[in-house]
């Protein structure tokens, strides 16, 4: 059984979708929720699902071992970032290279990088007069929103769309594609190369 940890800082709508998708999966299991924000909605989802939670501290995450030992102790194979707002430190990237997947609510390489999350992304897309936006599911490396793209899907930006309206369209794409793409990536990685 390949074990996933979902990293989330927010409401956890994508986390909930992923948990549900893998609920009865024969070879992949969501085993841990990692959160950096007390009171985040994802914590209620974890509690309702009976999933253990690792609450992380900024100091340990960025200046300690980034919880690598704890993840390995819990036999976590893959990290899935679903609305997680901290940059992934080098120690974690090195320990899980090729096994950290993020979703970004725009068509990277445009509208990525520091500060580009949530409505900030959609406001930037609309301000620039873009005709389309979408999602990018990508591997995580040492830089914000920089790792190799795995999958993109697009939506039309209609005249008169607000950032909130565009966010709703993009969220629909996230929920439709993210769990399936995670499954495809996890299935094709040979873990014996990483252990």
What proportion of the residues form beta strands (DSSP E)? 15-25%
CATH superfamily: Formyl transferase, N-terminal domain
- The radius of gyration computed from the alpha-carbon positions, rounded to a whole number of angstroms, is 16 Å
**What is the count of helical runs?**
7
Helical fraction: 25-40%
* Beta-strand segment tally: 7
Oligomer: single chain
Give structural notes.
The protein has 195 residues and is an alpha/beta fold. The protein has one domain: Formyl transferase, N-terminal domain (Rossmann fold, 3-Layer(aba) Sandwich). It contains seven helices and seven strands; from the N terminus they run E-H-E-H-E-H-H-E-H-E-H-E-E-H. The chain has helices at 13-21, 41-49, 58-63, 68-73, 90-95, 118-127, 163-188; strands at 2-8, 28-35, 53-55, 78-81, 100-104, 132-139, 149-156. Helix 2 links the parallel strand 2 (28-35) and strand 3. The radius of gyration is 16 Å and the shape is globular.
Summarize the structure.
This protein has 195 residues and is an alpha/beta fold. The chain has 7 helices and 7 strands; from the N terminus they run βαβαβααβαβαββα. Strands 3-2-1-4-5-6-7 form a 7-stranded mixed sheet, with helices on one face.
Question: Topology, pairings included?
Answer:
Elements: E1 2-8, H1 13-21, E2 28-35, H2 41-49, E3 53-55, H3 58-63, H4 68-73, E4 78-81, H5 90-95, E5 100-104, H6 118-127, E6 132-139, E7 149-156, H7 163-188
